[in-house]
Design a protein that fits this description.
Blueprint lengths: L2 H25 L4 H21 L4 H27 L5 H27 L2
Helix pairs in contact: 1-2, 1-4, 2-3, 3-4
């Protein structure tokens, strides 16, 4: 997968997260968790975008690591929302599939970049 395709995947995930936040606010009257997942879920792609313009290989690895941590946080919030019965099993599984795929790509990229240092 090239960098533009991965960025597009991150953008599509961010759009889904924004739609989830909108749903949670309008239909569940849920504000705190919806704000948390919106921040972490949309920052994955933002951090990846910054990594693409990194000043050095070390800076790239650092920014990719931040994106990876944001994936972890997003997974946490998805589990909280599902466990609290604020999202359906279908929504949970769809979003988890996306974020786990993004996490895997970030992990592989970090590993490759570290081995090329």
């Amino acid at each position: 997968m090239n960098s533009q395709d991965f960025l597009n995947m991150c953008i599509a995930f961010s759009v889904k997260i924004n739609m989830l936040r909108k749903y949670l606010r309008e239909n569940q009257h849920e504000y705190n968790n919806s704000d948390q997942i919106q921040r972490s879920g949309t920052s994955i792609g933002a951090n990846y975008s910054e990594a693409c313009d990194a000043e050095s290989k070390a800076d790239f690895i650092h920014k990719m690591g931040i994106a990876q941590k944001e994936c972890n946080e997003t997974i946490y919030w998805l589990k909280v929302l599902y466990g609290s019965e604020l999202i359906t099993k279908e929504s949970y599984e769809d979003l988890m599939r996306d974020v786990e795929k993004i996490y895997g790509i970030l992990t592989a990229s970090i590993k490759t970049a570290k081995s090329n240092l």
